[in-house]
Each structure stands twice: as C-alpha cells, then as structure tokens.
Design brief:
By secondary structure, the protein is α+β, with helices and mostly antiparallel strands. Helix content is 36%, strand content 24%. About 4% of the residues have low confidence.
Length: 284
C-alpha cells in the first residue's frame, strides 16, 4: 500500500521540462519545469481567484439584477413605485407650467378676463373646469339619443325647479356644512363653517343684483341673478368685493375672509320664488 502511495506521489511530483528552441540554431531560448502537482495547484489557485472576483462583481455591481432569484424584489418594487410617482408629479408640474404660460399669453392678448382679486391658480382652475366639461364623442352621442327620447316623455308638471338645471355648479366655499336645508323649519339654505382665510366663490355666471349690509340678517348679503330665473344668495360677516350691476364668472372670488371675522357662510338658492336645496345641485 505504501509502495503504491509513494509511486503515485512520485508521479505527480515528477517534473517535466518545457523548452522553446530557436528553429535555425536549435538554441534553447526559454525553458520551464513543472509537474502534475504544480499544474493542479496553479489551476486551483486561479479558479479560486476567478470565483472571488466574479462574486465581488455580482455583489457590488448591478450585475446581480440579471441573476434569476437574486433580485431584491421588495426594494426594486419600492424603487419602481417611487420612480412612477416622481414621473407622474413631473408630468403634472409640466402640465401646470404649460397652462400657466398659455394663461399668461391669453391675458397679454386680452382673451382672458382677469378679476382684480383672482389669482393665477383660480384662473387655471376655471380653465381646467372648461376643459373637463368638454364632451367626448360618446357623451355627445348619448346626449343626442337621450334628448331624442325625452321629446316624447310625459312629466307630471311639478318639476319646474328641476328643469333646465343640468349644468355643473361651483361650490360657494370650502368647509363643513353645519346646518342643512329644512323647508319645514324655514331654513331656506345651508350654513357652512368655512376654512380660515378661505374665499367665497360664484356658483355660476351671472349679474350682481344686491350687495350690502342687511340689518335683518346682521350680515353682508349678495344676490346674484343667473340664467333660468335662478338666484344665489350669500351671507357673510364682512363686505363683498363686487358691486351691484357687475358681471360675475363661475368660480370667481366674491370675498376673501380676513381671519378676524367669523368664518361662516349662509348660502341659498332660489328659483321663481321657490327655495332649492343647494346639496341637490352642488357637490360639497
């Protein structure tokens, strides 16, 4: 057994000579001595070096994302979501900048009416509302079909207040409704607790019928005449910005709270002498 081991050990340690000779003179230019054991050890060392080099490159570089099952799915998903949110925010910001430039161009050319108390953001809001209200082809076709069917419909005759009221109305203010419409208890409108330093807006295009202080209501009151015999009434504790006879655009600022007076708004809708429930026509 020892003889076999000694012979195997001698074989793998037996050195071979590798020589390179000059073809013309047969002079030995370079020589190298090696054995099977040295070749095996050198190959093993190079394999270990290559293994650690590849492992380092995979761990420390983005190459690991190309290996199936090694990708950090959770972190990658989070990063993708964050990138999507940032891209969406940048797209929205670019859209607002384009609208801002278009609005300035309209103001400079005189195609946009600018209110003295309105801001650029309010103008952009009005412009967006006009864009959002544009009908698509499907909506236009549905409206035509609905109108054609309604030509032959029969009504009871008591829906005068609901007729011709199919347009979108701007909410008069931002806040929380404290008292709702109750015709039985002679509450002809709603009461809102407005946000501090917020504004009162016009619900529709119209003309100011009255703007002044009412002793009976102990508040400043404004009446605006709209189309279809519709009148909106606003009551707050400070004066309004508009005067009698001025034309009003939908969403235009009627008053801005100064932060000192009570942030409370009374809002009413009337049509042909009958009170209407504002919550039936406006999304608060």
């Amino acid at each position: 057994m020892n003889k076999i081991e000694n012979s195997f050990y001698q074989k793998i340690r037996f050195k071979y000579k590798l020589s390179i000779l000059n073809e013309n003179t047969l002079e030995e230019v370079w020589r190298f001595r090696l054995s099977k054991l040295s070749v095996f050890l050198a190959s093993f060392f190079m394999a270990v070096v290559y293994f650690f080099l590849i492992a380092f490159l995979i761990i420390q570089t983005p190459l690991r994302s190309f290996l199936p099952g090694y990708t950090e799915n959770i972190n990658l998903r989070k990063q993708v979501m964050l990138d999507a949110v940032q891209v969406d925010s940048l797209a929205g910001l670019m859209h607002e900048q384009e609208q801002y430039v278009a609005m300035l161009r309209g103001v400079m050319t005189g195609n946009v009416f600018v209110d003295s108390a309105a801001t650029v953001n309010s103008l952009l809001t009005q412009e967006n509302a006009k864009i959002d209200l544009e009908k698509s082809q499907k909506e236009a076709a549905f409206c035509d079909e609905f109108e054609e069917d309604e030509k032959y419909s029969v009504t009871t005759g008591d829906d005068n207040n609901q007729a011709d009221m199919n347009y979108l109305m701007h909410r008069p203010a931002r806040g929380i409704i404290s008292n709702r419409f109750d015709e039985k208890n002679r509450l002809w409108g709603i009461s809102m607790n407005m946000e501090t330093n917020s504004s009162v807006y016009a619900t529709l295009d119209g003309v100011v019928l009255f703007s002044g202080f009412s002793v009976n209501d102990d508040s400043f009151v404004m009446h605006i005449q709209h189309v279809n015999d519709l009148i909106s009434v606003y009551k707050i504790k400070q004066p309004f910005l508009k005067k009698i006879g001025e034309e009003i655009r939908v969403g235009e600022i009627l008053a801005t709270l100064d932060g000192k007076t009570e942030p409370r708004l009374m809002f009413e809708l009337w049509r042909k002498g009958q009170p209407l429930n504002p919550e039936s026509y406006i999304m608060f």
